[in-house]
Amino acid sequence: MNTVIVTGAGSGIGLAVATKLAGLGYNVVVNDFNESAAQEAAARIGGLAVQGDVSQEADVARMLEVCIAAFGAPTHLVNNAGHVHQSRFVDLDPAEFDRMIAVHLRGTFLCTRAVLPHMIARKSGCVVNMASQLGQIGGVELVHYSAAKAGIIGMTKALAREVSKQGVRVNAVAPGPINTPLVRALSQEWRAAKAAELPLGHFGEPEDVAETVAFLCSDAARIYVGQTLSPNSGDVML
């Protein structure tokens, strides 16, 4: 049976992904920085909750230990944990920049590094990294967020070249603006301006992204490696 760790799965896209994969029969380990959110999500989908900060090596190690004890080594990993903060670049505090990189880029690195040896040993595995269309085109007052997400896209491509022949598929998803608590934390002015730019004229829903993740996790995506799929309301067209 497939076993997946979904980070940042207490709400938003992560919760939608966890719900979708649980419905497909996966054993789901629900990670979130917020313990009560993780527990509520896990109870809702019949998964296993593990609180933890993905930027902390000890928390990541504990998350993997809990997964292995309950279900065995994960066959899939969805690096979804996120953080958002809005600031003009000239006002950006280095601490906020560091936290953004820590959650998104360091977190993706630590979680993937933890599970990868098990996948390589099995000669099978799937990693899906949550990027963003802002990692492709940038975003006003979101330079640090855009930089972190661009880093995830670069990491995805490089790692895919490194481990594909060992049976591990690594891909990314770069959503456009999605109706999640993180996006709703941005200013109303930013959200209105962004919606007006979109060819569809509206944001997506977490379930839209979950469908893309589920595809990449499936055997139907067996020749997808190092790719970045973009459910983004037309914000980026490649």
Automatic annotation (TrEMBL):
It holds the Pfam family adh_short_C2. Keywords: Oxidoreductase. Its EC number is 1.1.1.-. It comes from the Bacteria. The keyword Oxidoreductase applies. It is an enzyme of class 1 (oxidoreductase). GO terms for molecular function: oxidoreductase activity. Transmembrane segments: none annotated. InterPro entries: NAD(P)-bd_dom_sf, Sc_DH/Rdtase_CS, SDR, SDR_fam. Belongs to the short-chain dehydrogenases/reductases (SDR) family. This is SDR family NAD(P)-dependent oxidoreductase.
